[in-house]
Design a protein that fits this description.
Distance between the termini: 126 Å
CATH class of the largest domain: Mainly Alpha
Helix content: 40-55%
Number of strands: 4
CATH architecture of the largest domain: Up-down Bundle
Radius of gyration: 33 Å
Shape: globular
CATH topology of the largest domain: Glutathione S-transferase Yfyf (Class Pi), Chain A, domain 2
């Protein structure tokens, strides 16, 4: 015999009356809402004080540097340089590659120029390559970019790249470093009144040079250039202090292969006279 199920009677619901009380000015989140907000990584933080948005709700692009803004509408890059050896290196590379750049002499450490050039390079050092509104500094990076601009293998690619990087790295920590230590104490300090020459630093640099030069000399035995059968950026970088070796008193004449290699570099016009035809004031004299 079937039993009938009783229907549960439900009370009729009455619609809620809308509240006439105004919402609070700054409603507090519940603990659950606060924890979910902290856990949700997709939530955007509120804009910081001082930021503005456009009518469409998007923040405007960051203001461009006024000193590189003019480059955006120009196809020609600008290379800022001086006659010191790293800027000299960059100019020599650009002229050797016949890169499409405009050359501008600069003095970033001049009191009236520091604010301008700090926006291009926080180190206030040269060279600086400004291209399309972007500032690139450091001579090695600039040499790489210049080679890209003209499609040259001067900055090696493929199998030759690791070998070139090897010599760039070794130069920076050994041969060029040793030359620079001596050059800075004997030349740069006297040229710019940076204090007395420290003979202990000179002696340390000469000791490092005595260790590095035989390695370079041995590698150049039977070779014209450091990497492959043609000149590369490794040669320019390794020799960057050589134009100042007379002033610095670098004892390199005894190394036959280095001397022959340096003579081959001097046959390259862009290396021998990188500032020919440019507005490039001479460096201050080296004081005794």
């Amino acid at each position: 015999m079937r039993t009938r199920r009783r229907r549960r009677r439900t009370r009729p619901t009455t619609p809620r009356r809308p509240s006439t009380r105004p919402p609070p000015a700054n409603p507090k989140k519940t603990k659950g809402q606060q924890s979910r907000a902290r856990a949700d990584p997709t939530r955007r933080a509120p804009p910081t004080v001082g930021t503005t948005k456009t009518a469409g709700g998007r923040r405007p692009d960051r203001q461009k540097d006024p000193y590189v803004q003019h480059q955006q509408d120009s196809e020609t890059a600008t290379l800022y340089f001086s006659r010191n050896y790293n800027p000299r290196l960059a100019v020599a590379v650009a002229r050797h590659l016949d890169a499409p750049v405009e050359y501008r002499f600069a003095a970033p450490f001049a009191p009236d120029q520091q604010e301008r050039f700090r926006r291009l390079n926080p180190n206030l050092s040269l060279p600086i390559l400004v291209e399309g509104g972007n500032a690139l500094w450091e001579a090695d990076a600039i040499a790489c970019r210049l080679s890209q601009m003209v499609g040259s293998d001067f900055w090696r690619s493929g199998d030759g790249l690791p070998d070139m990087i090897r010599w760039l790295s070794w130069a920076g920590w050994n041969f060029v470093r040793a030359c620079d230590m001596v050059h800075f104490e004997r030349v740069t300090k006297r040229r710019y009144d940076l204090g007395p020459t420290r003979q202990d630093v000179v002696d340390d640099g000469l000791a490092k040079l005595a260790a590095a030069a035989p390695i370079l000399d041995a590698h150049l035995d039977g070779r014209q250039w450091l990497v492959g059968d043609s000149v590369s950026y490794a040669d320019f970088r390794m020799a960057c202090v050589m134009p100042f070796q007379g002033l610095a008193g670098l004892p390199l004449a005894q190394y036959r292969n280095i001397a022959a290699w340096n003579a081959r570099l001097e046959e390259i016009e862009a290396w021998r006279s990188p500032f020919a035809g440019l507005d490039a004031p001479e460096l201050p004299p080296v004081k005794p």
